[in-house]
Specification:
alpha/beta, 10-stranded mixed sheet, 6-stranded parallel sheet, 33 helices, 25 strands, globular, binds ligand 26V, glycosyltransferase, 1,4-alpha-oligoglucan phosphorylase activity, Glyco_trans_35, carbohydrate metabolism, EC 2.4.1.1
Amino acid sequence: MFDNKETFKSIFQRNLVSKLGKPLEEATQEDVYHVLGSMIREYAGQDWATSNQGFKQRQDKQVYYFSLEFLIGRLLGNNLLNVNELELVRDSLADLGFSLEDVEEQEADAGLGNGGLGRLAACFLDSLASLGYAGHGCGIRYKYGLFEQKIINGNQVELPDNWLEKGNEWEVRRPDKKVEVKFWGRVETQEENGRYQFVTKDAESVVAVPYDVPIIGYGHPHVNTLRLWSAEPKRESSLDTPSNYYGYLDYSRSVESISEFLYPDDSQYEGKLLRLKQQYFMCSSGVQSALRTFNKLGLSYDRLPDKVAFHINDTHPTLVIPELMRILMDDQGYGWDEAWDITTRTVSYTNHTTLSEALEKWPVSMISKLLPRIYMIIEEINKRFCAMLLDRYPGDQERITHLAVIAHDQVRMAHLAIVGSHSVNGVAALHTEILKEREMAPFYALYPERFNNKTNGITHRRWLMHANPKLSHLITETIGNAWITEPGKLNELTTVSQDASFQEQFRAIKRGNKERLAAYILDHTGTAVNPDSIFDVQVKRLHGYKRQLLNILHVMHLYNRLKNDPTFDIVPRTFIFGAKAAPSYYFAKKIIKLINNVASTINQDKAVNDRLKVFFLENYSVSLAEKIIPAADVSEQISTAGKEASGTGNMKFMMNGALTIGTMDGANVEMAEQVGEDNMFIFGLRADEVLNYVHSGSYRPGELVSQDNRIREVVEQLIHPGAFCHREGEFWDIYDSLVAHGDEYFVLRDFAAYAEAHAAIDVAYRDIPDWTRKAVLNTAQSGIFSSDRTISEYATDIWGIEPVSGYWKG
Ligand code: 26V
């Protein structure tokens, strides 16, 4: 791209003048960010056009990954990495008096997602482009991303995330590619030549305008598209009377609200009309736009499944199924059976959770009014599906009601997604087993060939090469650079895991990352951190099943011991938390408050704060994760077994050489298979044991409270004013959830095992060479968790595609 530093510097300065009218001396860091970003975007534009032409000429099958969430984070550093200009730009900017790291800080995170599901979609985009697949994202350009979290007096406060305030260098508005999406109205049936035609009358039209973001592949000129849709009002010509004009303003505001904000709830379904509108808006726009591209090939729609795959990320985009049926039947004239065959062969679906409270069920009254034609189609899908079931299970009405797509006046989106697609996958081996054997067992009995597992992955380009450049260099110096394109080769590090000089360098890098995080913490909290302490980190969304509560109760216990037992000797430990709670999730917010109370008491207590410190870092986000994860020694992955579908943070920590303390849940199970249980700290109930307790109803947390002094002491501290509880009953709700309401997440049941695992960490950390060996082995065995592996599996097993261009080996 730039031949050398001098060329870069002169092009850069020219752009500074032409774009901002500023000479170098007057440029701010923000100016540098904007100019550099626009240069990279424009440069990628060439390859983008070439990639698109290539797709068309070769008639490559296109994958469209539909997701309500893409948690991208920042793009500057990653794009520089992928176009292979990171070093040159860093050095050149340094010559000009700027630090690339500081310039990167100017970019707002694209926080268009809640957590794991949205971040997975972003990792997948990076892998699709880097492996040279024709695979694109389809989502919504929310004006406001996930809220910004502030902690005030220990409580979470949400502020709007106005991420577009300073503009977005990466997007291109494409008004020429707009489509129209229709809501409300009524369906009229007309008979034409003996065939029924369905026409929706008096519908409200919304214009969907795409904003395209180039997704640049690593090391070769392959650029895919993330197409984010924005809702705009349709301009009517007859606004001549004042009442019409005010009516138009109302309409216009209601339209714009569709792409206004991302719903900040995860794992908690709420039947909000606006959310349903968002879903259909995205599905309809994406399907129409993909079919427009397909149309240019001049092929029959019979060939659609050979040329197009629609993948739906969780059930949120399930309306892709009836929308495709609608277009095939109403616009293309297909009969039901042919349209159904084409649709099911085109669509595939990933399940991301078995939590029943997250399952989407839309009220029939809502869907049928908002989307009358779509609802008719869903009804017909349900009718035919139930008829098939009746044939198979005659008289078994109970089973049929249990499986139906529509029952009890609700449309069950997961059922619609399974029935209407050719592939259903879970996101880790254990999760897929639970789907097959438990949650979706009756569907598995019907369609065993549809179910498959695709264990999640993370892009090692963002999470290792970009987040931890020094470790990446050390790895390359040691085993060569083949691991970059074949991350499985990280396992060649196994041979140096005990090499003293390698270990020393590995540790120095971790230490440097810890110093950097310590500086961040000091800057943001005013409290100093000892970089020689064990950095023990739990960062993820706040949810009961993720058990941040188990972690903080154990910290409270450590504090109690340090205060009461003068012989208690521990390696200094710094516990770090980061988590956003859904704004309406009362219990989760109480846990944030508890963590902050504990942090403030411990950090101020001179009797312990040389050995124990606790931090809650506010506004956990992708860019903060990139600072925290490379600095971690211990990774907390402690969900109630059977509840965490996969987890992906677990993989990021592993890749960066942290040791996991975790339950046998989600992908932790496969991590243990890779690295060996000796190199992790596995504890707690297994998924089948949890299930047995649930079935038998035999778990009695109250007994643990009376039997175990440690537990009794900490649960009492939740309600009696003292070190952690500032007023009588401050944490009654937490106390009750554990003691009176049966401790749904088995926090107390796993407490003893968890404390034991922590004690084992304390012992293990004292043997520095052996700890380092384990850490190196974790990095070495993490390659399989690259999303490149995951995406290759989706490509082969689900989408039936091959790379259309290969890595550039230059
Ligand atoms: C659910 C809902 C429910 C309705 C309201 C809006 C909303 C928004 C997001 C979600 C997603 C919940 C599912 C989810 O995020 N699952 C996570 O997916 C990760 C990627 O597969 C996986 O690693 C995590 O274990 C899983 O919890």
